[in-house]
Amino acid sequence: MEYIEFKANILPIEIGRDVLIAELSELGFESFVETNEGIEAYIQSEEFEESAIQSLKILTNPMFQVNYSIKKIADQNWNAEWEKNFNPIYVENRCSIRAPFHEKIAGIEYDIIIDPKMSFGTGHHETTYLMIKRLLDMELKNKKVLDMGCGTGVLAILAQMKKARYVKAIDVDEWAYNNTLENIRNNNCEQIEVKMGGAEKIEENNFDVVIANINRNILLNDMKRYVSSMIEGGELLLSGFFSSDKEILLVETSKLGLELLYSDSKNDWTMLHLIKR
Question: Looking at domain 126-276, what is its CATH homologous superfamily?
Fold first, then answer.
């Protein structure tokens, strides 16, 4: 499978990078690497329409300067690229996310090994970080957990390490599906059930905890299915959207009988922790 790489330099970078990631997510881009100058974003070749790039609002917004390039990238090029830039992540001094070639740090409660390939979810992005941070404070022992849009499988792996009774991980992307299988083997978490597809692959309706770190539009489209898969008193963690979209999500979650327990933000990205009443 071939991918398209969209590489952009952005000024001002702090706000512009987040705006561009959000807009590219709407176009189907699924993997992002933050660079010192901006971002690198990736989409499957068959899903890419170059004409859609011209619809990016940031390109005509006078607040931003964006220079970009587009090229086709072979599968094997990704490994060398991420190995150059991938550094371990530490969350709350309790969880580390590292590549296989990094040394294990003593005293870390949850040590997760991730070989991300083309998948999203190394902990570098704010939404993954926020999700991990919240999961660290939750009681998952003996619970059934669903990870929607699992990416690298990092959140499912953490749930398993926290002694969840059953964990199911689902992603529509073939790269993510295979990458999650690889990463659960790397972490001796092979009890996790992995499915390739969308919300139609949920099947069960008795999850204690559902995790969904996906873009806003997918969350809004599939949220009803997530909620129907949860027990009464079940908990739903949502992220993958900007803080400016928080109220839109809360309106929809309220319609589905969800109550907000907690929210957290990092660099204009937000995570919501809700309960099914």
Answer: Vaccinia Virus protein VP39 (3.40.50.150)
Angle CA 198–201–205, to nearest 5: 120
Helix, strand, coil abundance in the chain, percent, nearest 5? 35, 35, 30
- Asked if 213 contacts 128 with a C-beta cutoff of 8 angstroms, the reply is yes
* Cα(17)–Cα(14) distance, integer angstroms: 6
Nearest to 129 by CA among 275, 274, 267, 24: 267
What are 141-196's pLDDT values in tens digits? 999 999 999 999 999 999 999 999 999 999 988 888 999 999 999 999 999 999 99
Dist. CA 90–CA 71, nearest whole Å: 33
Phi, psi at 268, each rounded to 5°: 75, 5
pLDDT in tens, 80-130: 555 566 788 899 999 999 988 888 888 999 999 998 665 566 767 889 999
Q: What are the pLDDT digits (tens) for 17-56? A: 989 988 998 888 877 777 889 998 888 888 899 999 999 9
The answer to whether 143 touches 165, Cβ cutoff 8 Å, is yes
- Enumerate the H helices of the chain as residue ranges: 13-26, 50-53, 77-85, 126-136, 154-161, 174-186, 216-228, 246-255
Domain ranges of the chain: 3-81, 126-276
The reported pLDDT for the residue numbered 118 is: 58
Instruction: Give me the CATH code for the 3-81 domain, please.
Output: 3.30.70
CB 159 within 8 A of CB 135: yes
Outline where 229-275 has alpha helix (H): 246-255
